[in-house]
Amino acid sequence: MSAPRTPIEVLVVGAGIAGTAATLAAAKAGARVRVFDGGPGASSLATGAIDLHHWRAGAASTGDPLLARDVLGALAAFVLPEGGSTLLTTAGVMRTALGHDAALLDLSPFAGRCVAVVRCARPGWDADALATAVGGAWIALEARVLRHVDERALVDAGFAALHDDEARLAWLADRLREALATAPTGSRPAALLLPPSLGVDRPRALALSQRVGIPCGEPVAMPGGPSGLRFERARDRALAGAGVERALERIARIERSERAWRVTTTAGTQLEALAVVLATGGLLGGGLEYAPLGRILDAPVPPRAHPPIRLTIDAPVSMGAYGRPLEAPGTLFGAAPEHLAWPSAPDGLLERAGVLADEEGRCLRAPPGLYVAGEIVADATHTWLRALLSGASAGAAAAAFARVTCARSPDRGPPSRP
Ligand SMILES: Cc1cc2nc3c(=O)[nH]c(=O)nc-3n(C[C@H](O)[C@H](O)[C@H](O)COP(=O)(O)OP(=O)(O)OC[C@H]3O[C@@H](n4cnc5c(N)ncnc54)[C@H](O)[C@@H]3O)c2cc1C
Fold first, then answer.
1. Does position 65 have pLDDT exceeding 90, yes or no?
2. Cα 38 to averaged position of ligand 1 atoms, centre (Å)
3. How far is the CA of 1 from the centre of ligand 1 (A)?
4. Per-residue pLDDT, 410
5. Ligand 1 centroid vs 42 CA: distance in angstroms?
6. Treating both helix axes as pointing N-terminal to C-terminal, what angle do 166-181 and 205-212 enclose, rounded to 10 degrees?
7. Given the CA of residue 281, which atom of ligand 1 is nearest to it?
8. Cα–Cα distance between 150 and 163 in angstroms, integer?
9. With the C-alpha atoms ordered 138, 139, 144, 145, is the resulting torsion angle positive or negative?
10. Atom number, ligand 1, closest to the C-alpha of residue 373
11. Per-residue pLDDT tens over the stretch 289-302
């Protein structure tokens, strides 16, 4: 199929948090943007804690989140409190984070105070164990949270979706107020921690807190819970608000044509774009592939060695790690997978390999106009806020590049949006 005559200004590949941030930043800069996405990636599996650096027990989260506020404002489902936040996981681990999904309860204001963990017969939820794990003034609180017995069997996201409904949220607020009224005076909780339950369409913690009269929220849950779905819904609303449609279609090839970038989908459709942002994620998102040498050893004589990690899209980028190009191993047998990843290799190749790029996401050793963002960037920390910041930066840079290209060749297409 032939490419359309008018190139898109900025084409973003991938709609995890990096691609979303790139799209919103490019659209805010006035570019006409299109997004192609292959479906859920790491951002849809994340658990709602927002970090810039990898969180380790005992380490405080630091960094300058100011740059993220535009994108977070458009998503309207995440918060970055001044001074960071303190979250509890469903495994009973207290951890710091720079920010969080707005349905999660920030425990920072409640140090040394009574927080009640609400009892609820749902899989993986043990209010008494959580209250004991934290200790101090924490208590478990009896309350009716399940309205029907079959709600025990719902997955977390399905249970959370029930509370998108106003009437159901009001019912829950009534039950929680009744439960609080039974708490002995003197040990009245300052906040309530509930199982993952507070909405999928939008975070419902604030609405519930207002009805109950004290802060209510969730802990950090397991991957695949409501936080990932809340991200997807927030993303779709933010993209629609920016006038950008997310096409659920995978990109197979990106190549430089005479006048622009030619992008081919797996279905064979071709488009042209003045600038492209690759935000296809790492191994989880599908942007990178672990390609062990065993595969080429199927041949009677192994033809060649190649690096064990490669890009899944055919694109003229340079792969690298540790600040230098990715090299093929010195032996045809290559490195065993356990030597590439944590815990055997604490700073292993699987965490580091990606596309070599500069600070703004410009691909090194590629023709101009090709950018990368998020986990696909070589040596990038694999965290939510890092992906967001790199996406915002690459999207703005791509829009600026498209604008300059348009100004140089006004016959190339219609003017940018105001
Ligand atoms: C279980 C889990 C827990 C985590 N916990 C935390 C945490 O506590 N704190 C924290 O800060 N971070 C956490 N992270 C990390 C954080 O979520 C990721 O670093 C971040 O979401 C990566 O975003 P991304 O946009 O780069 O990639 P992704 O979210 O993976 O997005 C990549 C997108 O590209 C699309 N794509 C891939 N190939 C193609 C193609 N050929 N064509 C079109 N589209 C394509 C995919 O469909 C996907 O939508 C966690 C991650 C996971 C998986």
1. no
2. 12
3. 31
4. 57
5. 3
6. 40
7. 27
8. 16
9. positive
10. 26
11. 988 765 555 565 55
Ligand 1: centre distance to CA 386 (Å): 11
Pocket lined around ligand 1, Cβ cut-off 6 Å: 13-19, 36-39, 41-43, 45-47, 49-51, 223, 250-251, 279-281, 284-287, 312-313, 374-375, 382-385, 387
The model carries a pTM of 0.93
pLDDT per position as a tens digit, 359-401: 999 999 999 999 999 999 999 999 999 999 999 999 999 999 9
CA–CA gap between residue 252 and residue 265 (Å, rounded): 5
CA 66 to centroid of ligand 1, rounded, Å: 21
